[in-house]
């Protein structure tokens, strides 16, 4: 009986080692929670302070008078929120990796970053093109769509639960593309509420 228990334990340890070598498991649930809080704060500022709530796809003022100061402020705000979210994720994931006795920047992490970067960079460039063309109403849908695709790609190298998060973001992007007037609400749900729910779930499942 003892030999059988030792055999089962050895198998479990081998499986754990293989998983650590093929999956990036240092993502922190708190990073998701904080990203959601940053996202909600950003949406609130964009809506209430900069009055960003497109109701149509095209904004005729872009072509004639250039980018409005409020839209420029929203772009800067989005970049700040992104930097804060990424910075927090790196900091908390580094702490988790150290606690697990692992390196944060390993071959699996590199593959994860590359597979996330492709849709994020393409999506970011496409959004800049749409801004230049006055297609302001599609900023929210396309940011959610390409972010969802990036998250779905990343799920192959980390927790499987990220597939659900990615698909949900894609779904919100499609909804907001059809109902442009609800784009700011979908932003709040996708980048705010969903991140907080995901972060809480991951924290209590894997970090408690």
UniProtKB/TrEMBL annotation:
The chain crosses the membrane at residues 24-50, 70-92, 112-129, 135-152, 187-204. Keywords: Membrane, Transmembrane, Transmembrane helix. It comes from the Bacteria. The keyword Transmembrane applies. This is Uncharacterized protein. It comes from Negadavirga shengliensis. The lineage of its organism: Bacteria, Pseudomonadati, Bacteroidota, Cytophagia, Cytophagales.
